[in-house]
Write a structure and sequence with these properties.
The protein is mainly alpha-helical. It is built from 8 helices and no strands. The protein has helices at residues 2-13, 16-44, 50-76, 80-99, 119-132, 134-141, 144-165, 167-173.
Length: 174
Protein backbone atom coordinates (compact mmCIF):
# COMPACT_ATOMS: atom_id res chain seq x y z
CA UNK A 1 0.00 0.00 0.00
CA UNK A 2 2.97 2.33 0.55
CA UNK A 3 4.11 1.95 -3.05
CA UNK A 4 0.55 2.50 -4.25
CA UNK A 5 0.32 5.61 -2.07
CA UNK A 6 3.48 6.86 -3.80
CA UNK A 7 1.73 6.15 -7.12
CA UNK A 8 -1.23 8.26 -5.97
CA UNK A 9 1.06 11.11 -4.92
CA UNK A 10 2.83 10.97 -8.30
CA UNK A 11 -0.52 10.94 -10.13
CA UNK A 12 -1.83 13.93 -8.16
CA UNK A 13 1.46 15.71 -8.89
CA UNK A 14 1.13 14.97 -12.60
CA UNK A 15 4.41 13.06 -12.56
CA UNK A 16 3.84 10.21 -15.03
CA UNK A 17 7.36 8.78 -14.68
CA UNK A 18 6.84 8.53 -10.91
CA UNK A 19 3.59 6.63 -11.46
CA UNK A 20 5.34 4.23 -13.82
CA UNK A 21 8.33 3.66 -11.51
CA UNK A 22 6.03 3.05 -8.53
CA UNK A 23 3.98 0.65 -10.65
CA UNK A 24 7.17 -1.22 -11.57
CA UNK A 25 8.12 -1.44 -7.88
CA UNK A 26 4.64 -2.67 -7.01
CA UNK A 27 4.87 -5.39 -9.66
CA UNK A 28 8.27 -6.45 -8.30
CA UNK A 29 6.96 -6.65 -4.73
CA UNK A 30 4.04 -8.74 -5.96
CA UNK A 31 6.38 -11.02 -7.92
CA UNK A 32 8.48 -11.63 -4.81
CA UNK A 33 5.45 -12.39 -2.64
CA UNK A 34 3.68 -14.72 -5.04
CA UNK A 35 6.00 -17.74 -4.52
CA UNK A 36 5.59 -17.44 -0.76
CA UNK A 37 1.79 -17.28 -1.01
CA UNK A 38 1.75 -20.26 -3.35
CA UNK A 39 4.13 -22.28 -1.18
CA UNK A 40 2.03 -21.65 1.92
CA UNK A 41 -0.94 -23.50 0.40
CA UNK A 42 0.71 -26.87 1.02
CA UNK A 43 0.91 -26.01 4.72
CA UNK A 44 -2.84 -25.42 5.11
CA UNK A 45 -4.44 -28.08 2.89
CA UNK A 46 -4.05 -31.81 2.49
CA UNK A 47 -1.84 -33.08 -0.33
CA UNK A 48 -4.91 -34.46 -2.14
CA UNK A 49 -6.45 -30.96 -2.12
CA UNK A 50 -3.47 -29.13 -3.64
CA UNK A 51 -4.67 -29.11 -7.25
CA UNK A 52 -8.13 -27.90 -6.26
CA UNK A 53 -6.66 -25.30 -3.89
CA UNK A 54 -4.28 -23.90 -6.49
CA UNK A 55 -7.06 -23.84 -9.08
CA UNK A 56 -9.28 -21.90 -6.69
CA UNK A 57 -6.40 -19.56 -5.82
CA UNK A 58 -5.59 -18.84 -9.48
CA UNK A 59 -9.18 -18.42 -10.59
CA UNK A 60 -10.14 -16.19 -7.66
CA UNK A 61 -7.07 -14.04 -8.35
CA UNK A 62 -8.07 -13.73 -12.00
CA UNK A 63 -11.65 -12.77 -11.16
CA UNK A 64 -10.55 -10.20 -8.56
CA UNK A 65 -7.95 -8.78 -10.95
CA UNK A 66 -10.58 -8.38 -13.66
CA UNK A 67 -13.11 -6.80 -11.30
CA UNK A 68 -10.41 -4.54 -9.86
CA UNK A 69 -9.38 -3.38 -13.33
CA UNK A 70 -13.01 -2.64 -14.21
CA UNK A 71 -13.57 -0.76 -10.95
CA UNK A 72 -10.30 1.11 -11.46
CA UNK A 73 -11.43 2.18 -14.90
CA UNK A 74 -14.71 3.51 -13.52
CA UNK A 75 -12.97 5.29 -10.65
CA UNK A 76 -10.42 6.78 -13.06
CA UNK A 77 -13.30 8.61 -14.72
CA UNK A 78 -13.59 10.55 -11.45
CA UNK A 79 -9.83 11.08 -11.31
CA UNK A 80 -6.70 9.04 -11.81
CA UNK A 81 -5.29 10.00 -8.42
CA UNK A 82 -8.59 9.13 -6.76
CA UNK A 83 -8.57 5.67 -8.38
CA UNK A 84 -5.04 5.03 -7.15
CA UNK A 85 -5.92 6.20 -3.62
CA UNK A 86 -8.83 3.73 -3.58
CA UNK A 87 -6.41 1.06 -4.85
CA UNK A 88 -4.00 1.85 -1.99
CA UNK A 89 -6.88 1.64 0.47
CA UNK A 90 -7.74 -1.87 -0.78
CA UNK A 91 -4.19 -2.93 0.07
CA UNK A 92 -4.61 -1.54 3.60
CA UNK A 93 -7.86 -3.48 3.98
CA UNK A 94 -6.20 -6.67 2.68
CA UNK A 95 -3.29 -6.17 5.10
CA UNK A 96 -5.76 -5.77 7.97
CA UNK A 97 -7.38 -9.12 7.07
CA UNK A 98 -3.99 -10.81 6.71
CA UNK A 99 -2.95 -9.70 10.20
CA UNK A 100 -5.98 -11.55 11.59
CA UNK A 101 -5.00 -14.90 10.05
CA UNK A 102 -3.30 -17.45 12.29
CA UNK A 103 0.44 -17.85 11.79
CA UNK A 104 1.57 -20.77 9.68
CA UNK A 105 3.48 -23.47 11.54
CA UNK A 106 7.20 -23.47 10.84
CA UNK A 107 8.19 -25.86 8.05
CA UNK A 108 9.73 -29.12 9.24
CA UNK A 109 13.42 -29.35 8.50
CA UNK A 110 14.51 -32.38 6.54
CA UNK A 111 18.06 -32.97 7.71
CA UNK A 112 20.97 -30.72 6.86
CA UNK A 113 20.17 -27.53 5.03
CA UNK A 114 20.93 -27.57 1.32
CA UNK A 115 22.99 -24.77 -0.21
CA UNK A 116 20.86 -22.59 -2.47
CA UNK A 117 21.49 -22.88 -6.18
CA UNK A 118 22.08 -19.84 -8.34
CA UNK A 119 18.94 -18.68 -10.09
CA UNK A 120 20.46 -19.44 -13.50
CA UNK A 121 21.20 -23.01 -12.37
CA UNK A 122 17.68 -23.43 -11.02
CA UNK A 123 16.11 -22.10 -14.23
CA UNK A 124 18.25 -24.31 -16.47
CA UNK A 125 17.47 -27.36 -14.30
CA UNK A 126 13.74 -26.60 -14.44
CA UNK A 127 13.94 -26.16 -18.21
CA UNK A 128 15.78 -29.50 -18.66
CA UNK A 129 13.22 -31.35 -16.55
CA UNK A 130 10.23 -29.73 -18.26
CA UNK A 131 11.67 -30.32 -21.74
CA UNK A 132 11.68 -34.09 -21.10
CA UNK A 133 8.05 -34.21 -19.93
CA UNK A 134 5.71 -32.88 -22.64
CA UNK A 135 2.72 -32.24 -20.34
CA UNK A 136 4.90 -30.35 -17.86
CA UNK A 137 6.48 -28.30 -20.67
CA UNK A 138 3.02 -27.44 -22.00
CA UNK A 139 1.92 -26.31 -18.53
CA UNK A 140 5.06 -24.22 -18.06
CA UNK A 141 4.68 -22.50 -21.44
CA UNK A 142 0.88 -22.25 -21.50
CA UNK A 143 0.73 -18.63 -20.35
CA UNK A 144 3.64 -17.33 -22.45
CA UNK A 145 1.58 -16.35 -25.55
CA UNK A 146 -1.09 -14.67 -23.41
CA UNK A 147 1.56 -12.83 -21.37
CA UNK A 148 3.32 -11.59 -24.50
CA UNK A 149 0.04 -10.55 -26.12
CA UNK A 150 -1.09 -8.82 -22.91
CA UNK A 151 2.19 -6.95 -22.57
CA UNK A 152 2.05 -5.90 -26.20
CA UNK A 153 -1.55 -4.78 -25.81
CA UNK A 154 -0.69 -2.61 -22.80
CA UNK A 155 2.19 -1.06 -24.72
CA UNK A 156 0.01 -0.32 -27.76
CA UNK A 157 -2.76 1.05 -25.51
CA UNK A 158 -0.36 3.44 -23.77
CA UNK A 159 1.29 4.58 -27.00
CA UNK A 160 -2.06 5.06 -28.78
CA UNK A 161 -3.59 6.95 -25.86
CA UNK A 162 -0.52 9.13 -25.54
CA UNK A 163 -0.53 9.93 -29.27
CA UNK A 164 -4.26 10.66 -29.39
CA UNK A 165 -4.82 12.49 -26.11
CA UNK A 166 -1.45 13.41 -24.60
CA UNK A 167 0.56 12.27 -21.59
CA UNK A 168 -2.34 12.26 -19.11
CA UNK A 169 -4.12 9.58 -21.11
CA UNK A 170 -1.08 7.30 -20.85
CA UNK A 171 -1.41 7.45 -17.07
CA UNK A 172 -5.09 6.54 -17.39
CA UNK A 173 -4.14 3.47 -19.43
CA UNK A 174 -1.94 2.25 -16.58
Amino acid sequence: SIVTAVMAWAAFSGWLLGVQVALLLRACVHALGEPARTASVSQVVERTELVTSHTLLASSWSVMFTLGMAAGGLLASIGIGFAIVVDAFTFVVAAWFITRLPALPPAAKSGASQPRAKISTAISTAWRVSSRIPRLREAVLAKAPVALAGGGTWLILNLSANKALGVASAALAL
